[in-house]
Structure to design on (539 residues):
């Protein structure tokens, strides 16, 4: 392990030219009211999880800096969004759906041109490997295409009138107002865009603040945002949440709060809103998804899924399997196979072919994980895999912890990193109780092949979590499926289809089905005197 750690971080010259860094990027631009404005105030240093060898030492790479806007400047972005919405009378919220779609398509074409730049920054800023960084970019583009298609479907269905009990009506989804969109550092592009794009396309205006890491990678998209949307429709701000976002929420001018992060931060921010009943929230929050391995099981499949489920992107996924309950009859074989699979995962730098384990972006994360391991081992667990828990700089080699019990912190805390706690069980009721008593309710995985047991566990857990995975790891995709959670794990449901609904409200225009009214409505449609009242069919 020492040899592996010694050779982990490269020298600058050994990095393939395509992925080599140029000079540090001093980013001072932010986007307000259709203009890239320059910030002359303080900047935050942006550090990479990657360290480089230099003159016999290893040093953390400084990637550049990003603006630390103050509250007043953040509020100028909100003002621009408020003006562009103009109490619902702005050009954007009133634009025909087909036209709004054209703006989003223009943006998508410009975004695709930035693939290489964004992928490179994903690797350098958050340490995501090349394959997954490319996947994040492409999945985000696909999500935009799917969103456009879903909106076309929705709009086609809204293009007709309905007649109920003598009342003629047309129902359309209308925007809600100004949306504040904030994503997480583990999917700084994808998860942010899964709220940002639906919010925009439904006619809301937006203030977007990038995640705490994965900040510079938004820079290559700023011109695309500026040129693709009318002024004020999309505004991009930077800075500390405490300073900027708190002021936005306290202003009372945010109508929709789309946030992926901790439930504590979400609650604190929601409380700042002076009229909480007027704030709609779409939240993706904490999770501690369990994997439950039953005694009658295809163990090879369970191990395969558990390893990727627990350790892809170093366990830094909200959907990661964060605790494994394994039946005593199969636990030894499970651990043995798990260790062998884990040993085959390649540590290295994000751009190296086949790399699975990479450095972690959060400062202090290695110490936090060390603390969880120390706590568990002091209370009777062992690190089973060779080198497990060893670290160098920002890199932490995954630790398989066994046997874990409820006295240990890792049994309860969301580690969000490469720690795999395994709890042996004999009585399935103890596992059921864990789920019932948990503060989290995002997803879980069941591994087994006895129909009676699986069938009854599905019923037991259907009212506990948002998704039950059978013989498969937890995950968000496919993006057309609902993604949500219960308890502290989420508010609202996101999927391509649901997100369009989250960021809009059904609005009805109704009239008595009488000659004069029929004539009036027909005239409005014939003369194209309304964007709402129209029977246009989008092809
Ligand atoms: O971090 C949470 C993400 O939504 C997980 O998405 O399951 O596709 O990795 P994923």
């Amino acid at each position: 392990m020492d040899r592996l750690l010694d050779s982990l971080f490269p020298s600058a010259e050994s990095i393939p030219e395509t992925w080599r860094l140029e000079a540090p990027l001093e980013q001072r631009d932010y986007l307000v009211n259709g203009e890239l404005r320059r910030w002359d105030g303080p900047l935050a240093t942006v550090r990479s999880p990657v360290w480089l060898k230099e003159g016999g030492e290893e040093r953390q790479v400084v990637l550049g800096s990003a603006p630390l806007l103050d509250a007043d400047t953040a509020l100028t972005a909100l003002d621009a969004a408020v003006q562009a919405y103009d109490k619902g009378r702005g050009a954007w919220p009133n634009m025909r759906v087909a036209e709004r779609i054209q703006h989003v398509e223009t943006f998508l074409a410009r975004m695709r041109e930035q693939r290489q730049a964004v992928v490179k920054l994903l690797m350098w800023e958050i340490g995501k490997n090349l394959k997954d960084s490319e996947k994040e970019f492409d999945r985000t583009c696909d999500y935009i295409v799917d969103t456009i298609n879903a909106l076309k479907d929705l709009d086609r269905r809204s293009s007709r009138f309905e007649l109920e009990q003598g009342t003629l009506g047309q129902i359309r989804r209308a925007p809600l107002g100004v949306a504040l969109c904030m994503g997480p550092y583990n999917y700084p592009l994808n998860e942010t865009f899964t709220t940002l794009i639906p919010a925009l396309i439904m006619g809301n205006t937006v203030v977007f603040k990038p995640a705490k890491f994965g900040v510079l990678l938004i820079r290559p998209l700023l011109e695309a945002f500026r040129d693709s949307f009318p002024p004020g429709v999309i505004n991009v701000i930077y800075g500390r949440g405490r300073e900027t976002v708190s002021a936005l929420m306290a202003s009372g001018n945010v109508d929709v709060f789309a946030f992926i992060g901790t439930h504590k931060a979400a609650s604190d921010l929601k409380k700042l809103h002076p009229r909480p009943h007027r704030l709609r929230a779409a939240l993706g929050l904490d999770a501690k998804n369990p994997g439950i391995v039953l005694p009658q099981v295809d163990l090879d499949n369970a191990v395969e899924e558990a390893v990727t489920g627990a350790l892809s992107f170093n366990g830094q996924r909200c959907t990661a399997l964060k605790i494994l309950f394994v039946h005593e009859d199969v636990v030894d074989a499970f651990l043995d196979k798990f260790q062998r699979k884990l040993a085959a995962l390649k540590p290295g730098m994000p751009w190296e072919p086949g790399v699975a384990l990479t450095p972690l972006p959060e400062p202090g994360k290695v110490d936090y994980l060390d603390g969880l391991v120390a706590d568990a081992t002091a209370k009777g667990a062992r690190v089973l895999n060779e080198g497990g828990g060893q670290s160098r700089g920002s890199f932490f080699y995954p630790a398989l912890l066994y046997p874990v019990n409820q006295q240990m912190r890792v049994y309860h805390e969301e580690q969000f990193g490469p720690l795999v706690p395994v709890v042996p069980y004999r009585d399935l009721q103890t596992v059921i109780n864990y789920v019932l008593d948990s503060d989290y309710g995002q997803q879980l995985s069941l591994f087994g092949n006895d129909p009676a047991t699986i069938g009854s566990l599905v019923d037991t857990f259907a009212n506990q979590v948002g998704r039950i995975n059978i013989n498969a790891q937890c995950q968000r995709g496919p993006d057309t499926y609902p993604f949500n959670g219960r308890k502290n794990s989420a508010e609202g449901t996101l999927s391509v289809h649901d997100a369009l609904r989250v960021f809009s409200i059904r609005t009805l225009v109704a009239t008595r089905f009488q000659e004069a009214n029929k004539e009036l409505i027909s005239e409005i449609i014939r003369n194209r005197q309304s964007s709402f009242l129209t029977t246009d069919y989008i092809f």
Notes: The first strand starts at residue 25 and ends at 26. The chain has 18 helices and 27 strands. The mean pLDDT is 97. The longest helix spans residues 130-158.
